[in-house]
Sequence to fold (429 residues):
Amino acid sequence: MKRFWIMAVLILLTLTGCGSPQQTTDANATTQPDATEGVIWASGKLTPVRWAGLSPAVSGTVSAIHVNEGDQVAADDLLIDLDSGVLKAQVDAAAAAVAEAEAALAKLTAGATPAQIAQARAALEATQAGLALAQSEATQVTQAVRGAEAQVAIARAQYNDLASRPTDAEKQAAQREVDIEQAAVNQAQAAYNVVRGDPNIGMRPEALALEQATAGLNAAKAAYAAATQGATPQQLAVARAQIAAAQVQVDAAEARTPAVEANVQSAEAAVAGAQAALDAVLAGATAEDRAMAEARVMSAQAALAVAQAQLGQAQVVAPFAGQVGSLSTRVGELATPGEPLLLLGETDRMHVETTDLRETDVTQLQLGMPVEVTFDALPGHTYEGAITRISPMSNTEKGSTNYTVEVDVPGLDPGLRWGMTAFVNIRTR
Fold:
């Protein structure tokens, strides 16, 4: 009502020529009284003290809208979803990796169970039995090699014995036997010659002695011939064949040696590994093992945080509690970063922002100046307020250079809505 009377006075002053009102060529500017009257008029809008136009961080198709215009939401409430099936799958996979790493850490720090200790001991005993078997096989192969080598030595000795005959000693011994028998024959012959005229010579002992001596001489000569003849080619061939057969046994036994030695080494390594495993089970996790397991958990948690952050970029979440002022999208539409899909404001804390305050008037304003505010929605009701902020920079709209002034208005009617037109009278003195 006060605004009405002020307007009436100004019109009267203009018609009578008693006043000197300021004129403006700005298309949207309101005709205002001279500053000497101590009042500056401006229009404004009722806005939340805190509000934001929300958009996603990435481009995508709107898949779900979880709020309606006018809804009250809490901080961190999910407002809009973009199509993010792949990102959600990545979050699930990262969460599973975190659970797996945490389970591994818990298992590591819990220590070995009696069953695990028994299993480690059984594994050690099994490897020890395998080592004993491998060592036994190696011993058998070594003995086989030695036995075969002994047979080779015997066969070679036999061959050398055959090949070296007759020796001088054997020849001399055989010759001595021949000489002895020859002497016996000579003696028997001499005795026989003495009685050889006897008509019964054949019945005499001298004849028998000569016959026996002659037989002994023939036997000695035969022995001499055998002794001085040496081994036959057939005998030597048989002896060489025996050497070769014995050498084959040596080669066969030696051929098994590398394999059995490798088996022994492998069995020894298995025993060492099983012993180390048992020692590790009995000793429990080392500090290094725990540190590595904890690092894996932290790495998995970091990967989960990254996946959740990437998913969050495809969602519009309330940064603070407030009311949804407007929605400017529908399911199926393409959303892009920087283009707000909705407006969110704390409508329980509203103030007035001027929209057409001229640059010629803003220089007269100071913080804390009293302000009268009226609304078309509440005719006849005037609110008292004060300037809380003066914009340091102008804005231009439809050719008019204006400044925004924020006005705190206590006790606003709850029925007033975001965006309602306000009329501001600023008393400069």
User: Anything to note?
Assistant: The chain is about 50% helix and 20% strand. The longest strand covers residues 378-390. The chain has a mean pLDDT of 85. The longest helix spans residues 114-164.
